[in-house]
Amino acid sequence: QVQLVESGGGLVQPGGSLRLSCAATGSIFRINRMGWYRQAPGKQRELVATITSGDTTVYADSVKGRFTISRDNARNTVYLQMNSLKPEDTAVYYCNANYRPNPYSINRELWGQGTLVTVSS
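User: That's the sequence. What structure does it adopt?
Assistant: Structure tokens below.
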């Protein structure tokens, strides 16, 4: 069974940094795209950043220049380096993967359990 295991959330002061990690474990043939989404209280889940197996990245306008997504294909792991954090970055951050469990299956979507990031003084 494929799972996404997230880590790295926590409390940080405005202007600080955090690094989130997400590792995909289990039987995986190929991961096409991994990414991070977030959901603040009372708001819908939104895209933060995604990265493909070819290292093509997409960022939300609100995080461009502050967040960096990267990926270790050998370890099926994606990272989100978050710098210059603002209170409005406070949210539960969810890891997402678009993957194929074997060469004959269709692509599937998988979500992590979420990790809380709180930016507050």
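DSSP finds no helices and eleven strands in the chain.
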